[in-house]
Design goal:
alpha/beta, Arc Repressor Mutant, subunit A, Nucleotidyltransferase, domain 5, five-stranded mixed sheet, 40% helix, 18% strand, ROK, ROK_cs, ROK family transcriptional regulator, WH-like_DNA-bd_sf
């Protein structure tokens, strides 16, 4: 077995790294943990005992006979701890409660932020969290915290910036405000990073497997997992795929550049072309209202998935641009595993997967060395919320992989 890269100097970090190895292994023996970590059998026994005492691990039978004493197997105790994830989105707020294994045990959906201000939305979120807690009826002491996912979060500034909501959100620290109201630790990250972390956790992906998750809501983001943690960059803004230039002579983007992926392939771009296609808006029941871009795009995507010609052409155009952007990322980072997540991929995700697979297999620089696996993530539309919940689990239970917020460079 391949050793982990670093367990860290402190006992707490070592303990959390062992817990993470059990998570990724599914079931594992103490001897296998010693081999993976490089620790002595005595050290592993000591750390495992503390995890068993805290109910985070359970013994679950024995391994196959090897001629000597059969090895007892360990696995996570999924009912030991829980966390809440919230995906803050213009169209809807999605809440999930997950257990330690990442399984969803409670869920709530409510209207999105729209143009509401923080002073209106945060109290509503606190009330809806209380409603969700009553529904799931779990011991309060077993809920470790709340994770919040949102578009355009800049961790390096110390406040939260939201790319698709009202200006008032741009300087509002939602983490601190919500923590005061709910009385639980609150952590936050952007939706793409949360979706990647959720895939890492629930997919039992080991820390040695690097991968990326492409997230599409109203725009694009990419979460990059490296060494069991989310890659951050100088100001915690890794993954702005929506502003990768795919056409140097393309339309102007609000970021100041031209030909960004967001302007050519995001839901707004698809809906804009659909509205300009004679008769298509009426045929699909498109509103053309900026406040209903998500619903209009979903209607186009569903029609495309059904094989209707003009909607399929529009989504295929979007998918070709996305595939070109992903190809550049694959070439740059030497990826061999990519997931697609988020509400934008729910209805027509298979079209995007096909275009990305075909383009990467045909012209990726590394195609002769290794293949690239491209898959749709689960749970799809709620990937950010589920990932936000695992962010809270990781923050509290696995300090060796905790998000590190570095100040933005001036």
């Amino acid at each position: 077995m391949r050793a982990v890269r670093s367990l860290g100097p402190s006992a707490a970090r070592t303990r959390s790294a062992i817990l993470d190895m059990v998570r990724s292994s599914g079931t594992v023996s103490r001897i296998e943990l010693a081999e993976m970590s490089g620790l002595t059998a005595a050290s592993i026994t000591r750390f495992v005992k503390s995890l068993l005492d805290d109910r985070l691990l359970v013994e679950t039978g024995y391994g196959d006979p090897t001629g000597g004493k059969r090895r007892s197997l360990l696995e996570l105790n999924p009912r030991a701890r829980y966390a809440v994830g919230l995906s803050l989105d213009v169209a809807r707020l999605s809440y999930v409660v997950v257990d330690l294994g990442g399984e969803v045990v409670g869920q709530l959906v409510s209207p999105g932020i729209g143009q509401s201000t923080p002073s209106v939305t945060v109290p509503r979120i606190a009330d809806e969290l209380e409603m969700l807690f009553r529904q799931v009826d779990l011991p309060v002491e077993d809920i470790v915290g709340v994770g919040v996912a949102g578009a355009g979060l800049d961790l390096g500034t110390g406040v939260d910036g939201w790319s698709a909501t009202t200006d008032e959100w741009d300087s509002f620290a939602v983490q601190e405000a919500l923590q005061k109201r709910v009385g639980l630790p609150v952590v936050r990250d952007n939706d793409a990073a949360c979706a990647a972390l959720g895939q890492y956790w629930t997919g039992r992906i080991p820390a040695t497997q690097d991968f990326a998750t492409l997230y599409m809501s109203l725009g694009f983001g990419m979460g990059l997992m490296v060494g069991g943690g989310v890659s951050r960059g100088a100001s915690s803004n890794v993954g702005e795929l929506g502003h990768m230039v795919v056409d140097i002579d393309g339309p102007e983007c609000w970021c100041g550049s031209r030909g960004c992926l967001e302007m050519l392939a995001a839901p707004r771009a698809v809906v804009r072309r659909a509205l300009g296609s004679p008769g298509l808006a009426a045929e699909l029941g498109l509103s053309g209202d900026e406040a209903h871009v998500r619903q209009d795009f979903d209607a186009v995507a569903r029609a495309a998935a059904e094989g209707r010609e003009r909607p399929r052409e529009l989504v295929e155009d979007s998918a070709r641009y996305v595939a070109a952007a992903v190809l550049s990322v694959v070439n740059l980072l030497d990826l061999d595993l990519l997931y697609l997540a988020g509400p934008g991929f729910v209805d027509a995700g298979a079209i995007y997967v096909r275009h990305i697979r075909e383009r990467v297999a045909r012209v990726a620089r590394i195609r002769a060395i290794h293949s690239v696996t491209v898959e749709l993530s689960t749970p799809g539309a709620d990937a950010a919320a589920s990932g936000a919940a695992t962010l809270a689990l990781q923050h509290v239970l696995m300090p060796h992989a905790r998000v590190r917020r570095e100040p933005a460079r001036s």
